[in-house]
Amino acid sequence: MKTFKLLLLFTCIVLMLSACSGQPTETAQVSRTVTSSSVFSTVTKSSATVQTTADSMQRAEETASSTLAASDSVSLTPSPAGKKTIEIWVPPQLDPSKNPTLATVLREKIDEFTQENPNAVISIRVKAESGNSSAFNTLSAAKNAAPEVIPSLAILSRNDMITAAQRGLIYPISTGIFTEGSTWFNYARKASLVDNLIYGIPIAGDPIVLGYRPSMTGSEVTNWEEILSRGLPIGFYPARPDDPFGAFIYLSKGGNMIDDLGRPWLDQSLLTSTLELFLTGGQQGAFPPSLAMENNPDRNMQLFLEGAMHMIVTHLSNFRYNQRTDTAAIPLPIDPEIDRYPMVNSWNIVLTDSNPNVQNLAVKFAEKLAAPAFNDRWTQILGFLPVRTSDLESWEKDPFYDSMRFIAERAELIPVNNVLNAVLPSINSSITSVIRTSSLPEDAARSAVEALDK
Questions:
Q1: What does pTM read for this prediction?
Q2: Is pLDDT above 70 for 357?
Q3: How many other β-carbons are positioned within 10 Å of the β-carbon of residue 224?
Q4: Sequence-ordered list of residues with C-beta below 8 angstroms from that of 35, at least 6 positions apart, any chain
Q5: Taking a C-beta distance cutoff of 8 angstroms, is the pair 376, 397 a contact?
Q6: What is the mean pLDDT of the chain?
Q7: pLDDT tens digits, residue range 45-101?
Q8: Neighbours of 92 (CB within 10 A)
Q9: Cβ-Cβ contacts under 8 Å for 101 (sequence gap 6 or more)
């Protein structure tokens, strides 16, 4: 007990010093209650006044980490008397302070929810997408050390949701939202499940697409022959073991990444065919050897935006965030006989609070975020795939609408982490070897398969 008091005293000193230095504390960040009269009214007036900028969030995460290490506890600002706070952790892509239009749409949905549930208060906290301060890693660290900091809900990527369920960090969701199956895109309904139990309510998908500059490429870039014939470098990152582009080509040709026993696996023949495309592209200038040396995730996008590169493979949300008036995007070409659009990530609302009373309210709010009209509006604003097939009024006015429908109707979720971690490095290593002309496609494919079998 004496040790605990000393640790608690040290924590208080750390927080007071942080306040004196002008840096936001964890308590200050967590207590951002989202109502129409507070955060979102401020956001719509001036995003500069909101404390969820990248720098302030980073400082808050550092303060939280220090506090957790010092006392195994982080204090939360209490809810108003008689109210239940539903706190939700969101990734940076869904930070309302960065997009006033998103803030307005979200504020309307929160107002609707709090009017229907006057005993509820909604609090939003932005968490990093990856790294020690990500939602997944913070949940893992807080599970035993500081359970009081765990939120009611969190938005996790597909594979983080699967791992969180396997580790007991999230709870199955009881919901009737999937009763009308025809109102959901098939990929989204699948994204909700872990071991045949509903662990998430999907709210968005994020595929990879081809961004291009029509003024330089022309508008007719609808298949690989046309794309590669331009002889223009296509930005991607074969030097990164996690780059999804090569896996997309392999899977879109009908390849699989697991064998009949569920083990990581590669079809040597289809991988050879995949590598032949990269060899052809390399010979035509689309995949120059210099691409195999680039490892900075932002470098190619910067070159694309500056006009030094005219084609790039990137996630749809990233393209839309960076889109300029002279750029456009199309779905990556797929084999029409296979008719599937692979490597689509999903974002899902998961239940992180074990209290049944909080769970009931939290699930109600999560269902609101997947309502068709709302999902249509915010996914179109940010450039994610919607999860619902109906009420797509905002998307129908978008130039990318037909492409969005094409992808969403064929979307196939990314494989699970243990498969990706085993297979992607082998695929990307073989691509690197081919575009550097170090190996022929059949030799590189054989080496990739042998490396996977070891």
A1: 0.82
A2: yes
A3: 16
A4: 110, 111, 114, 121, 122
A5: no
A6: 84
A7: 333 333 333 343 344 344 333 333 322 222 233 455 568 899 999 999 999 998 999
A8: 13
A9: 381
With 0-12 / 13-18 / 19 or more C-beta atoms within 10 angstroms meaning exposed / middle / buried, residue 294 is middle
Domains of the chain and CATH, by start: 33-57+81-205+346-403 (3.40.190.10), 208-344+410-453 (3.40.190.10)
CA angle 295, 91, 370 (to 5 degrees): 125
- Structure token pair of residue 21: 């230095």
Which residues lie closer than 8 Å to 3 by C-beta, 6 or more apart? none
Specify burial of residue 176 (Cβ count, 10 A radius: 0-12, 13-18, 19+): exposed
Phi, psi of 334 (to 5 degrees): -130, 160
CB 163 within 8 A of CB 348: no
pLDDT at 269: 98
